[in-house]
Amino acid sequence: MRVSVVLCEHTLERYDAVTEAARSVLDQTYEDVELVFVSDGNPEVLDRFEADFGDHENVVTHCNDENSGLLVSRNNGAEIASGDVVAFIDDDAVAHPEWVERLVAAYDEFDAIAAGGRMDPIWVDGRADFLPEEHYYLVGATYRGFGEGRDVPAEVRNTNGSNISFRRDVFRDLGGFDDEIGGRKGDKNLQGGETELCARMQAEYGQGVRYVPDAEVGHKVFAYRTEPRWLLDRAFWQGYSKRGMQQFVPGSAEEEGDFLGKILGEYVPQRLWGLVGDPDATAAKQLVWLVLLTGVVGLGYLYGIVKWG
Q1: What does the DSSP 8-state code read for residue 31?
Q2: Mean pLDDT, to the nearest integer, of 263-275?
C-alpha cells in the first residue's frame, strides 16, 4: 500500500517549519511513502523546496496558479498523488517516525476507508500551564474528551486535519474537501473542512475515521498561541464555527453536545473536588480557564445562531 502525504505552504516565513515537517515524512519507517508538496501560489516557495528536496525520488511538487487556500491546495495535492492512501499534515507539524506505518496497520486490520491519529502539542516556548487539556483543540492538539478517550482506538467522526488520511479512491469519489468552507470563497472564520468531508463520507459509505492513538503527530504551539487574548479569540470563533458547521453537517451538534455534557457534568466537578482535596494554584487556574473558555465558545456559538440561524 503506497501512501502519499500532502504538505502545503504559502509563505517563506514558515519555511523552516515546513522543512522539518517534510523531513519527518521522508524519515518514516514505512518504506512506500510519497511526499506531495503544494505551494499555494508562491513560486519562490516552490523553488526553495525543490532546491532542498528535489533530488528525493519520492517527492512530487506542484504550485497553484494563485493563492487559493488550504483546502484547494490539499485537493490539488491529492489529485497528483499516486498513493493508494492520501494523508494530510500541516506545515507546523512533525510526524512520529512510525506514523504512516501505524496508519497502514489500521487500514489492513479494520479494512478502513479513512484513518487518523493523535495530535500532541509541542510547546515551542514553554507550556501554557493555565490551559486545560479539555481545550487543547484550540492549539491543534487532541483534547481530553475526544472520542472514547485520547488513548482509545475507535471509529470517530473525524480526527484533526493535520493527522487524517483517506483511501484515495474514496477521497476522489467524494470530490475531496469542499473549498467553500472557509478560505477566500467562504467565511474566513468558518473552520472544519475535514468535519464536512467526513460527514459526507459517513453518509455515502456508512463509515467514519479509524482513530489510531499511537499514530502520533506533534503540533508546534508557538508563543503567540499561548497568549490569553489569542486563546479567547480562538475560542469565540471555534464556537461560531461549530454552529456554522451544523448548517453543512446535519447531526454534528450531537457530538458537540456530548462533549459539553462531559465538561459540565464530569470534568468541572472532578477538577473542583480535586482542588478541595488538594489545593493547587495551577489546577485552580486551569479550572477557571476551563469555565471561561467554555463560556466564550458558547458566546461564539450564540453569535453563529444570529449569523446562520
Answers
A1: S
A2: 94
Q: Are 265 and 206 in contact (CB under 8 A)?
A: no
Q: Is 167 helix (H, G, I), strand (E, B) or coil?
A: strand
292: its cell numbers: 471561561
Q: Outline where DSSP puts E strands in 67-143.
A: 85-89, 93-95, 114-123
Q: Per the domain annotation, does 261 fall within a domain?
A: no
Q: What are phi and psi of 170, to 5 degrees?
A: -70, -45
Report pLDDT digits (tens) over 239-266: 888 887 777 666 666 777 788 899 999 9
DSSP letter, residue 113: S
**CA 299-305-309 angle, 5° bins:** 175
In a domain, 299, yes or no: no
Domain limits for position 91: 3-227
pLDDT tens-digit map of 37-76: 999 999 999 999 999 998 999 999 999 999 888 999 999 9
Would you say residue 268 lies in a domain? Answer: no
Instruction: Please state whether beta strands 209-221 and 93-95 pair in parallel, antiparallel, or not at all (unpaired).
Output: antiparallel
pTM of the model: 0.93
- List residues bridging with 161 in a β-sheet: none
